[in-house]
Amino acid sequence: MSSSAIAPARADASASERDIHVQFRDVNHVYPARAGHEAVHALGPIDLALQRGEFLSIIGPSGCGKTTLLEVLAGLVTPTSGAVEIDGRAVQGAVPDGVGVVFQEDASFPWLTVADNIAFSLKRAGMEKAEIATRVDYAIGLMGLTRFRKAYPSQLSGGMRQRVCIARTLVTRPKLILLDEPFGALDQQTRLIMGEELLKLWRETGATVMLITHSLDEAALLADHVAVMSARPGHFIEVIATGWPRDRDSRLASTPEFGALTSRLWALLRDESIKAMGPT
Amino acid sequence: MTRARILQWAIVLGAFGLLEALCRFRIITPFTMIPPSEMVVSLIRIARTQSWFAEDTLYSLRNLMVAVVIAVFGGYLAGLVVHALPRLRACLDPLFSSYYSVPTFILYPLFIVLFGIGPMSLIVMGSVFGVVAMISATLTALDRIPRVLVKVARIEKLGPLRTIALIKLPAAAPHLFTGLKLAVAYCIIGVIAGEFILATAGIGRRLSLSYNNFDNATMYGVLLLILAFAASVNGALNVWERRIHRRWFR
Ligand SMILES: Nc1ncnc2c1ncn2[C@@H]1O[C@H](COP(=O)(O)OP(=O)(O)OP(=O)(O)O)[C@@H](O)[C@H]1O
Ligand SMILES: [Mg+2]
Q: What does pTM read for this prediction?
């Protein structure tokens, strides 16, 4: 990675402006005041353009509005102001097509087995049984859940449940994959492996990926761009291009470029994290 | 059998034995209570010889079943509606929380005026008594559904009905069971007590008739039947509930 690769984002934007998948324009979100709570300006202003097939990771201090950002994009939250577009079409609080979301919390269905959990969306889409079986088997293998396909979520660890949710989202082959700290409940080794699997999938499907993470290493290793968010109301202080090749893997982590990138991310994030923890 | 189970049986059988002894030795006179063993004999005899037995039992069972269906499904649906309308819920909350502090049976004469002395009044009595338990349980159950599951439903683009059928109903199931059990128990009480107070048929009316005629054998036979029925329904629901809980919260 040359020093120019860590230059502020979008220096090269004009070159590939043609294929914008996701666009945020001056987006703000304020959670309205409720009994006993003041209104919270959670997010904004956010301006962002995601290329089709790009892998973006987002880091930022706790409570800075990362989940809000994701839910605005997924159509779960209508932003107070500004516009979000997917493929040029406005997302106004309606869930767009082709979007897969892995939530921060455990969203597995406790009344279904692992296999049925993963097949949930496929069955609803009316897919053929054989095709469902193939995809579910593949996902179960990928997530290392083969021995647990007939188990219920209550019999799994938190990390395994999270993998069920990841599998349930990925089997539908979304064009836009939104992941909210999906590896939060995993140990460092599993995290690395899951990260590599995600990269492989991203390469194979050409999907656009937005990954929220609190691991600087993970953000730096997986993404084309790393967006660093400020303390609340969260906006991007900087979007850094990593410059990694498409067929990257975790061996990158031992290169000096990687070290330089993570130190830079940490420098940016440190002050914001202190701000976020201080009295507001 | 676990030790707890053995102990439970020992206590139940011990209580029966004690009661049997007290009755046999006339410490409790036959005018007050007949020995449990004779209750069983009496019940079998009634079932074999009395033509009213099948009729009255079926009458009560049918009314009870209708009352349970109304209380459980009606309560669930009402719960869904009230949960979706927070303002309405705020209005109704005081009613729900004080409902069982009011002796609902004072309404029974009103039901008779409205619906006549027949199945209708009994069904209404049973379901009115049971339905609020189901509504309250549904509200609690819906409150406890993790919000993230509802978000998944939205991402999956499930409409409101599918969200209920595929997410909200199964997600709420373990908590709904509490309501189901209470509603069934209250319906049994409502129907039997209604019959006891005033009715043209039914096992509760038999109880009341034999009581007024000092026919202790019949009265205790019928009493035993009602107790056994209520206990086994409750037991069956418990087994079912435990099975679901084991799957969910192991
Ligand atoms: N439904 C809501 N109503 C009111 N305030 C909310 C709501 N959801 C989030 N907030 C507030 O908005 C801010 C941003 O929340 P958000 O969940 O987006 O942060 P986050 O960056 O995802 O945090 P974390 O890293 O801890 O997951 C927080 O201060 C939070 O308290
Ligand atoms: Mg979050």
A: 0.83
